[in-house]
């Protein structure tokens, strides 16, 4: 794929963008999820892989309080921005939507 999608979120201040093709699923699993407004709204709850083992999409639980009443939604991996904190190298992902838009997404059903 070409990198001219243009609608990917910008990295946060004090962070560096990470090339998604270099990232292991284990590094993304559990990572903080930031809305495009820069708020941390969730953590990655699961990572879905393609046949060849690359990351296809991430599952994020949204809504609810402390996991009660939340629902999983699926976000294609090619729409998110991966970044690491310049100070401690901690990975986080930025999604191209607000918390409200995330909550309005259909619930992910395991196939």
Write the layout of secondary structure elements.
Elements: E1 15-17, H1 25-28, E2 32-34, E3 40-49, E4 55-62, E5 71-76, E6 81-85, E7 91-94, H2 99-103
Parallel strand pairs: 2-7
Antiparallel strand pairs: 1-6, 2-3, 3-4, 4-5, 6-7
Given helix and strand content, the structural type is mainly beta
N-to-C series of helices and strands: EHEEEEEEH
Oligomer: single chain
Helicity level: under 10%
Strand order of the largest sheet: 1-6-7-2-3-4-5
Strand runs, count: 7
Plain-language structure description:
With 111 residues, the protein is mainly β. Helix content is 8%, strand content 35%. A hairpin with an 8-residue loop joins strand 4 and strand 5. The longest helix is centred in the C-terminal third of the chain and has 5 residues, at 99-103. The two termini are 26 Å apart.
Short description:
This protein is mainly beta. It has two helices and seven strands; from the N terminus they run βαββββββα.
Kindly list the characteristics that best describe this protein:
mainly beta, globular, 111 residues, 7 strands, seven-stranded mixed sheet, 2 helices
